Automatic annotation (TrEMBL):
One annotated GO molecular function: protein-L-isoaspartate (D-aspartate) O-methyltransferase activity
Source species: Halanaerobium congolense
Entry's localization field: Cytoplasm
Gene Ontology CC annotations of this record: cytoplasm
UniProt name for this protein: Protein-L-isoaspartate O-methyltransferase
GO biological process: methylation; protein repair
The keyword Hydrolase is assigned to this record: no
Function statement: Catalyzes the methyl esterification of L-isoaspartyl residues in peptides and proteins that result from spontaneous decomposition of normal L-aspartyl and L-asparaginyl residues. It plays a role in the repair and/or degradation of damaged proteins.
UniProt entry tagged with the keyword S-adenosyl-L-methionine: yes
EC number: 2.1.1.77
């Protein structure tokens, strides 16, 4: 018998997201729509709705659904927004973002992942996602400024270029901390006077952001 992914997805949204306090309707709708199993390698599809991160290619991971939901909720994305994601990985978070925002730009440093994610997202019909192979610690100047920036890898500090490429009133969500250890999710808001406001959320564990303005 095949796995009833539809049922598992509904359950994941209820048990892992709603029951833990995620209540942003746009975020919940996105999680109800995007089929996480599509973003996992064949041998891991059965864990698509398990409550944790899973291995994808190149030793990288697709994040735990709940943590992605916390990050998306914290960004307070609106339908007309243009969003930048650093760390495309499987493309799952990019697909969720594309369900909510108008335009999504996502950067990945590992070619194999960038190519796979771009093909998959195209196959799934997303026309509002652009994938680029490159170093996201430097942002993506071409389409800046962004209303929201989601950093899907852990950094030692918030890279300055990301702050520069953020709209006034916009937010960055980023795990900041030690490499291969625990980090803390930070929400950075760029205020109208140009100053930065920072708030801290949960403790998390992400793969490292490797780049010119991060770990080498
Ligand atoms: N959002 C992804 C999870 C990504 S895991 C998903 O939904 O599947 C973090 C990813 O960040 C990895 O694929 C890693 O290769 C990538 N990464 C690390 N440093 C990077 C950098 N400087 N620029 C772009 N991507 C980077």
């Amino acid at each position: 018998m095949g796995i009833d992914f539809e049922q598992l997805r509904k359950q994941m949204v209820e048990e892992q997201l709603v029951k833990r306090g995620i209540d942003d309707e746009l975020v919940l709708e996105a999680f109800k729509k995007v089929k996480r199993e599509k973003f996992l390698p064949e041998n891991n599809k059965k864990y698509a709705y398990a409550d944790g991160a899973q291995l994808i290619a190149a030793g990288q991971t697709i994040s735990q659904p709940y943590i992605v939901a916390v990050m998306l909720e914290a960004l307070e994305i609106e339908k007309t927004d243009s969003v930048l994601e650093i760390g495309t990985g499987s493309g799952y978070a990019a697909a969720l973002l594309a369900e909510i925002a108008a335009e999504v730009y996502t950067i990945e440093r590992i070619e194999e992942l960038a190519v796979q994610a771009e093909e998959l997202l195209k196959k799934l019909g997303y026309q509002n996602i652009k994938v680029k192979l490159g170093d996201g610690s430097l942002g993506w100047e071409e389409f800046a400024p962004y209303d929201s920036i989601l950093v899907s890898a852990a950094a030692p500090y918030v890279p300055q270029k990301l702050i520069d490429q953020l709209s006034v009133g916009g937010k960055i969500v980023i795990p900041v901390g030690e490499r291969n250890k625990v980090q803390r999710l930070k929400v950075i808001t760029k205020k109208f006077n140009g100053k930065i406001k920072a708030k801290e959320l949960e403790y998390v564990r992400f793969v490292p952001l490797i780049g010119k303005d991060s770990w080498r």
